[in-house]
Amino acid sequence: MHALPGIVVTGASGRMGQMLIRMVAASEKARLVACIEREGHPWLGRDVGACMGGADLGVTVTDDPLEAFARAQGVIDFTAPAATVEFAALAAQARAVHVIGTTGLEPGDLARIEAAARHAVIVRAGNMSLGVNLLVRLTRKVAQALDADWDIEVVEAHHRMKVDAPSGTALMLGQAAADGRGVALDQAMVSGRDGITGARARGSIGFSAIRGGDIVGEHDVIFAADGERIVLRHIATDRAIFARGALRAVLWGQGQKPGQYDMMDVLGL
To answer: How many CB atoms neighbour CB 233 within 10 A?
Structure first.
């Protein structure tokens, strides 16, 4: 019997997938048992280490998540919403801890993830880094302390290949600001201004998205009043911070009761 929890990484060929594979393979606290790719992918049936241009890792890429999850204690998943909801059901069936870093999830997706969490541990976060989760906590505190005379704007920047906006992290920050204010984010949110928008509505929470180059992730929360501004900022320069957080989350989830958790739980914040 293996003492170390076996981990499956989905979306093996993606940037995050490859980073997660390297991190799990190098870890002394977990072992890599399977890597998942979509049907028809050129990596299928090959050793994942060789696919990534390195030495063999003894793990073959597969498109059969059900079989892979049955051999695992944890699944780390940074893929796409449609894949993630399917993985959530399969991971719950296998009673494996499912760590979800996928963003762009719609209410229907979240409902299916919530249903899966009745049977297994799910850790879901728009951002897995310690720094960002501290920023979320600070944002809520500052919003709580300031009234609606202070305009709140969340500004985020990411690489040109990111497909969703605002980012999952920006939405986490906006939610923290709304929670601090005691308002519903969907009522206060203003995103993607264009044209003659008129004056800013009092109490609104604005979002602005920048896409370009290879920016890993930058997030500012701006509190602006007449004559002064407070700017809370987090800059990520290396995707490894998200992989480290995800590995920490999947290890933390071992032995927890079924339910949906976030990085605040994992980090004890």
So the answer is: 11
CA atoms within 13 A on the CB side of 134: 8
Pair 214, 177: CB distance under 8 Å? no
Contact between residue 243 and residue 27 where contact means Cβ atoms under 8 Å apart: no
Burial class (CB in 10 A: 0-12, 13-18, 19+), 239: middle
Secondary structure of residue 190 in the 3-state scheme: strand
Which of 98, 158, 219, 234 is an active site residue? Answer: 158
Owner of token pair 């997938």: 17
For the beta carbon of residue 59, count every other beta carbon within 10 angstroms.
21
Overall pTM > 0.85 = no
Q: How far apart are CA 168 and CA 101, in angstroms?
A: 9
Question: Which residue of the set 98, 159, 162, 234 is catalytic?
Answer: 162
Given a contact cutoff of 8 angstroms between Cβ atoms, the answer to whether 82 and 163 are in contact is no
Please confirm, yes or no, whether 257 is among the known catalytic residues.
no
Q: String of b and e for 191-224 (b: at least 16 CB within 10 Å)?
A: eeeeeeeeeeeebebbbbbeeeeebbbbbbbbbb
Query: Helix or strand or coil: residue 123?
Result: strand
* CA nearest to 51, candidates 21, 87, 8, 84: 21
pLDDT score of 192: 86
Look up residue 92 and give its two tokens: 């719950």
pLDDT exceeds cutoff 90 at 269: no
Identify whether 162 is a catalytic site residue.
yes
